[in-house]
Write a structure and sequence with these properties.
Elements: E1 2-7, E2 10-13, E3 18-26, E4 30-39, E5 46-51, E6 57-59, E7 67-72, E8 77-82, E9 91-102, E10 105-110, E11 114-119
Parallel strand pairs: 2-11
Antiparallel strand pairs: 1-3, 3-8, 4-5, 4-9, 5-6, 7-8, 9-10, 9-11
Length: 120
Amino acid sequence: QVQLVESGGGLVQAGGSLRLSCAASGTIFSINAMRWYRQAPGKQRELVAVISSGGTTNYTDSVKGRFTISRDNAKNTVTLQMNSLKPEDTAVYYCNFRVRVTLFHEDNYWGQGTQVTVSS
């Protein structure tokens, strides 16, 4: 069984910064892609950023130049550094890992979600 635990959400003023982290524990052979999603009230969950096992990153257009995703493979951890935050960044943020739990089996796992609120 694999568990993801998120930390780092909170309330910040527009223009401020927050740093989210997500750590995996359990039976892990390796971790492929690590992703951050967010879901604002009344909206669908959207992919914010992804980092491959090799370190390649991609971002949704609305956060490019403001958010940075990084990973620490030794600690099974992903971080999302969020700068120049805007009220429209307000949402619950979820991490998602594609985990190889055995040599022949992969599965997706989700964090519990952390609230990010940006005041104007």
